[in-house]
Design goal:
Elements (H helix, E strand, L loop, with lengths): L4 H5 L4 H13 L2 H6 L1 H23 L10 H22 L1 E3 L5 H28 L5 H13 L4 H9 L4 H24 L1 H17 L2 E3 L6 H25 L6 H6 L5 H22 L2 E5 L14 E6 L10 E6 L2 E11 L2 E5 L11 E2 L3 E9 L4 H13 L3 H17 L3
Antiparallel strand pairs: 1-2, 3-4, 4-9, 5-6, 5-9, 6-7, 7-8
Length: 407
């Protein structure tokens, strides 16, 4: 089954894996040596070829226990659902629509990046074939530096002197530790499936959680999320396989075990509903002021259809960007290139200029008072904003201690 060129030339000895791993880690520097578009093209071409030839060396390797690919995808979907829920609370960022050609090129590059990174990690884990700390550390380091050139790695390491950058590096390390554990417990295919879903969300989803305005609050939150995932894998890995390999068998006893399926079914229903709203480009915005009362009150969630129709009707409620915020007001008319807007509770039209280019979309519905929870969470995050680094350090120490006490 391993009859490819590389599997014939290279044995499964650790030395062979070291040579291939060094080739993967040094290959990005080819782009610097050649420069320009040809350097970029040559690097990705060689990387794709090396990845394809190396796949048989790692693709069939199974983990120590579980999860399988099905469970890995389930965990990834849970993360995507969580990010989507946070988007409802903190806002979404909209992506520019790409042409079919651009999407095809981006998808090809994305696949090469993910597969090459995970093949590199798989080779690294083959060097020290155990589940010890050394193996996990090597997997994390490869995940951190795979695909980076030497100057980028130097800058990355130099940035560790500043606490904000140290927190970002900690976030990267925690994510890569989670992926490494999936490698060790579930195997190469499970890890690739997990990354394709999670990284694919951040790369290709038309609307994603807007993290630009959250700063260290987002880094701290995502670090904690990945730590929880790590603990879940460590504690539950021996039984995670039940979600996948025993799925068909459990379907036969569904009437007797219906209650055990309710949480899982509810989770997937919520995930599909949230993802459907994202891909239909309808997003919620929490109303924070009373300028649109009584149409929209504080705590209501306005459902905004992202995009601007060509025949935008006068009198519709629109959402538009004003500096770093999004305002929801009613469209009263058009004066040349400027839109005239006004809050229903305001006496005068808006004095600031609003242009068509700043429009986000049109309000198509509302959810009364649902956003009060989001407002409370946002205020809580503002109170915690000065303390993210110490807080994450304390939580990290606690979670590491808990993991060390695992039976």
């Amino acid at each position: 089954m391993r009859g490819t060129l590389l599997s014939g030339v290279f044995s499964s000895s650790p030395f062979s894996y070291v040579l291939l791993l060094l080739a993967f880690l040094l290959l990005p520097n080819l782009a610097l040596a050649l420069g320009g578009f040809y350097g970029f093209y040559a690097t990705y071409s060689v990387l794709a070829l090396l990845t394809a030839l190396s796949l048989p060396l790692v693709a069939l390797r199974r983990g120590f226990s579980s999860p399988d690919a099905y469970t890995a995808i389930s965990m990834a979907l849970a993360l995507v659902t969580l990010f989507t829920v946070l988007g409802f609370l903190w806002g979404f960022a909209s992506r520019t629509r790409l042409s079919p050609t651009s999407i095809s090129v981006s998808l090809a590059l994305f696949l090469v990046q993910i597969l090459s990174a995970e093949v590199s990690r798989g080779l690294a884990l083959g060097i020290i074939r155990s589940r010890g700390v050394a193996t996990a550390t090597l997997g994390v380091l490869v995940g951190l530096f795979a695909g980076k050139t030497l100057p980028v790695i130097e800058t990355y390491l130099t940035s560790l002197r500043a606490l904000p950058h140290l927190l970002i590096v900690l976030n990267d390390a925690v994510f890569n530790l989670a992926v490494t554990l999936i490698h060790l417990h579930g195997g190469f295919v499970a890890a690739v499936a997990f990354r394709l879903v999670v990284d694919g969300y951040w790369r290709f989803s038309p609307l994603v959680l807007d993290t630009s305005s959250l700063g260290t609050a987002w880094v701290a939150t995502s670090t904690l999320v990945y730590y929880v995932l790590i603990l879940y894998i460590l504690y539950r890995a021996p039984t995670l396989g039940e979600l996948g390999s025993g799925f068909r068998l459990r379907l036969r006893g569904l009437p007797a075990k219906l209650r055990s399926y309710v949480p899982q079914v509810a989770t997937y229903v919520v995930a599909l509903a949230l993802l459907a709203s994202i891909y239909l480009r309808v997003v919620p915005l929490v109303i924070l002021s009373g300028s649109m009362e009584p149409t929209l009150e504080v705590g209501d969630v306005a459902l905004v259809k992202v995009g601007v129709p060509g025949d935008l009707p006068i009198g519709s409620v629109v959402a538009f960007r004003l500096n770093s915020t999004i305002v929801v007001h009613r469209l009263l008319g058009v004066d040349g290139g400027r839109l005239i807007t006004k809050g229903d509770a305001n006496l005068e039209p808006d004095q600031f200029p609003v242009y068509r280019e700043s429009l986000v979309g049109v309000v198509v519905g509302k959810l009364p008072k649902v956003g009060l929870i989001a407002i409370a969470l946002q205020r809580g995050l503002r109170l915690l904003e000065p303390l993210p680094v110490p807080a994450v350090a304390a939580v990290s120490a606690l979670l590491i201690g808990l993991a060390g006490r695992r039976r």
